[in-house]
Amino acid sequence: MPKMKTDRGAAKRFKVTGTGKLRRRRAFRSHILEKKSSTRTRRLGREADVSSGDVRVVKRLLGL
Fold first, then answer.
1. What Å distances lie between residue 63 and 2, 11, 44, 45, CA to CA?
2. Contact status, residue 47 vs residue 25, Cβ threshold 8 Å
3. What residue ranges define each of the domains in the chain, with the CATH number in brackets?
4. pTM of the prediction?
5. What does the angle CA 14 – CA 37 – CA 44 come to, to the nearest 5 degrees?
6. CB-based contact 24:47 (threshold 8 Å)
7. How far is residue 3 from each of residues 6, 39, 63, measured CA to CA in Å?
8. CA distance 16 to 49
9. In angstroms, rounded to a whole number, what is the distance separating the alpha carbons of residues 50 and 5?
10. At 16, which helix (H) or strand (E)?
11. DSSP state, residue 5
12. Per-residue pLDDT tens digits for 9-48
């Protein structure tokens, strides 16, 4: 049986930390930023943890 290929779309969206946690970018930071407060846009720039319900699916897409 051949090896599973990594889902390239998922590989670009998620990264694994040194401790094995999954991180993702936040939505709503690409455009229409003028009306959003600077506090909000700054917080959207930070990476977030993948929610516990999605971890299993994302790990499978990444081949972990």
1. 13, 10, 27, 27
2. yes
3. 8-59 (4.10.410.60)
4. 0.82
5. 10
6. yes
7. 9, 45, 10
8. 10
9. 21
10. strand 14-16
11. P
12. 999 999 999 999 999 999 999 999 999 999 999 999 999 9
* Category of 20 on φ-ψ map: left (φ > 0), alpha (ψ -120 to 50) or beta: left
Structural tokens at position 56: 């299993």
In one-letter notation, the amino acid at residue 15 is: K
The first and second tokens of residue 1, run together, are: 């049986």
* Helix/strand/coil for 23: strand
Give the type of residue at 41. Answer: T
The two tokens of residue 49 are 């943890």
What the block records as the tokens of 4 is: 């599973």
